[in-house]
Amino acid sequence: MAKRHRHLLGALEISRAKARSRPYRLADGGGLYLWVPPSGVRTWQFRYRFGGKPQTATLGKYSDVQGLAWARGKADEARNRVNEGDHLTRVKAVKKATKRAASANTFDAVAADWLKSEARRAKWTQDYRNEVAASLTNHLSELNPLPVAEITAAIAAPHLRRIERAAPDMAKKVRQRLRSILDYAVEDGVIAGNPIPAPRRRKHAGGRPHLPATLTKNAVGAILRAADKADVGKGVRRAHLLAAFTAQRIGEIVGATWDEIDMQSAVWSIPRDRMKRKDVERGSHQVPLPPVLFTMVKEWHRVDGQGAVYVCPSPTGHASITREAVEKFYRRGLELSGKHSPHSWRSVLSTWANDAGEDPDAVEAQLDHVTGSPTKVSYDRAKRLARRADLMAWHEQALIAARDGAKVIGLKRKV
Predict the structure, then answer these.
(1) What is the pLDDT of residues 257-286, one digit of tens each?
(2) pLDDT tens-digit map of 200-233
(3) What is the rounded CA–CA span in Å between residue 83 and residue 31?
(4) What is the spatial distance between Cα 74 and Cα 374, in angstroms, rounded to a whole number?
(5) Sign of CA dihedral 381, 383, 386, 389
(6) How far is 314 from 223, CA to CA, in rounded Å?
(7) The sheet that has 261-262: what strands, in order across it?
(8) Which fold has domain 11-100?
(9) Edge-to-edge strands, sheet with 24-29
(10) CATH topology of domain 217-404
């Protein structure tokens, strides 16, 4: 027969148990206590001895539902387990781990945990987190009910191949995310190893991968016209125009802030830490804005107002858009998957300028490629900027002519 204990607490004592500067306990007898911390969040505790040492187990928070009767019942259960030789804290930890393992063995559960963890670790914006979550839903949801331990390369391959045929650029990201989720499962002890092999490294002529790009003037003009007519947010539209008319990488564009643009000299200074090449001694990458684009940029700034931060704001206005948002616009909005991406404008500049006999050093400098020694690059910086301003004005005319079906009128070169 269970030992009866004299109860000491009543409703009045509990109602009077207010928070103090120091925590305290109110005893109810038989090891049951009401714990009252300075925060005022009261909890029920059961105190006992295990192996001769005092132990404390938390039973739950005090509430109208979890009042005295509930707490006394929980204390009786805890007392019986202690009498049977159980260490309550260890039992609770094992139950929690078992419950977590039971719910975390499906792909959708692991993916949800990974998304939360990775977003926090990498400090993703809410827009980017939503983008990744949508990608998991759109491309990997068929794996959701499967236990992670049962996912093999053979099971994943058909899904990845289907995405690769429809959207090659997106397939790389989906594969990377799938591997990352399974790596997370390995680190969490859910599976022993990642069944998806790492992507094969392929050799490319000239040491660089071949990226799709549309280069003919008619096709480029069609892209620009379609983008002009597209129903898309201002952040994505601006990023598209900056990519087309400055030939900078989309990852460097989306984070642009208004304080990086000199409204007097029409020069955009991209911080080196946002560039692909992060050697600090090269300084910020200075990008001359061609005349028509600069007129648009000034109008954007006027519309946004003095308090605006980002040149390419997200719909909320509290952050910049993500590169994925622009890439999705090209893939879906413009239907250019496997044909032309925001990065492709760099190839357009390089190909058109070199074919037209423009200054190759100015082209390479505009693309932030290293040409010559660091000393020479530093010495020629001002001269190169003037030459690049000339180059980008010519290139802007060429793009507009392609878009409007006009002829390019050559500019007089500055000496």
Answers:
(1) 999 999 999 999 999 888 887 776 778 899
(2) 655 544 444 556 788 999 999 999 999 999 999 9
(3) 13
(4) 73
(5) negative
(6) 23
(7) 261-262, 267-270, 285-288
(8) Double Stranded RNA Binding Domain (3.30.160)
(9) 24-29, 32-36, 43-50, 53-61
(10) hpI Integrase; Chain A (1.10.443)
pTM above 0.70, yes or no: no
Enter the tokens of residue 240: 């598209």
Least confident of 187-201, 218-232, 293-307: 187-201
Picking from 365, 363, 362, 366, the residue whose alpha carbon sits closest to that of residue 350 is: 363
Tell me the torsion sign for CA atoms 390, 395, 397, 400.
negative
CATH number of 107-196: 1.10.150.130
Tokens of 300: 């954007």
For residue 360 the two structure tokens come to 């190759």
Q: Sort 286 into a burial class: Cβ within 10 Å, 0-12 / 13-18 / 19+.
A: buried
Among 242, 277, 276, 237, smallest CA distance to 256 is for 242
Residue 7 phi/psi, 5-degree rounding, is -80, 140
